[in-house]
Amino acid sequence: MLFGIIGGDRRQEELLALLRRDGYTAAACGVAGEMDWDAAVAAEVVILPLPLCKEGDTLNIEGPRRGAGALFRQFRRDQLILAGQVKPAQAALAAELDLKLVDYFRREELTVANAAATAEGTVQVILEHLERSLLGSQCLVLGFGRIGKLLARKLRVLGADVTVSARKAQDLELARILGFRRIKTGNWAGALAQYDGIVNTVPAPVVIPEHLQSIRKDCALLELASLPGGFCTEAQALPGYLAARALPGQYAPESAAAIIRSAIFRSLNQEEAS
After folding, report:
1. Distance of CA 39 to CAs 25, 70, 73, 172, 246, Å?
2. Nearest CA among 27, 64, 35 for reference residue 15
3. Residue 242: half-sphere exposure toward Cβ, Cα within 13 Å
4. pTM of the predicted model as reported, rounded to 2 decimal places
């Protein structure tokens, strides 16, 4: 079986090494300095990045700008295409072209493991970015999904005073049960001034211009969510803002690659069984 790996970050670089170490033949383009485009595109199993695109239709790949749509039109119907965080428009195009496209990020075991790696990476970023110790720091976590839950717990273990912000009543109640302070998203009314760090996990604008006057200039603002993210454009101009996306690829690429490898082979087994 010939694998083709196209684009991505250090996770795909480590994945390439893992596959070759296991004895598989793998061609790569835009990964680890390799640029074997033709062989990677023609492989039996093509592994595309996580996320598939940086923004819009722009493929997440080193080197010249390439469109995901143009790439899809080069694939054959007999290939298996694996990609992470596929957008509806790209999924629709794959269906129109009758391609076998699998979004490996939809696998539950991968999303959970990715959330854990993201939470760990976030703690490291906060420790590098804050001007003070986490012990006794006031931290606000926006969103209480997989990443938000794990991150809130890790921050509390390190001594931070953690508040969870969420919209859903069940999330706010769970935060209360777990012993966190909680506040409904958007109902901040000047409360943001107390925080030393605000971490967003919500992939939609929640911090808007009217909230900015209450955010301290020394407050660390970390964006974990995919575009458009939770911080408005004006918030992104604040001195404490940092876009901290794709943290598993930066802080735990080897572990992240092993997780992706496992998800890919489970997807392959399912395709063979169907």
Report:
1. 11, 16, 16, 50, 27
2. 27
3. 19
4. 0.85
Report d(CA 105, CA 114) in Å as an integer. 9
Query: DSSP code of 117?
Result: H
CB of 202 closer than 8 Å to CB of 225: yes
Domains and CATH numbers, the chain: 2-106+253-273 (3.40.50.720), 111-243 (3.40.50.720)
Q: What is the pLDDT along the chain (274 residues), one digit of tens a residue?
A: 899 999 999 999 999 999 999 999 999 999 999 999 999 999 999 999 999 998 889 999 987 889 999 999 999 999 999 999 999 999 999 999 999 999 999 988 889 999 999 999 999 999 998 888 999 999 999 999 999 999 999 999 999 999 999 999 999 999 999 999 999 998 887 899 999 999 999 999 999 999 999 999 999 999 999 888 999 999 999 999 999 988 998 989 999 999 999 999 988 888 777 6
13-17 contacts: CB < 8 A, separation 24 or more?
13/253, 13/257, 14/253, 14/254, 14/256, 14/257, 14/258, 15/47, 15/257, 15/260, 15/261, 17/257
267 close to 261: Cβ distance less than 8 angstroms: no
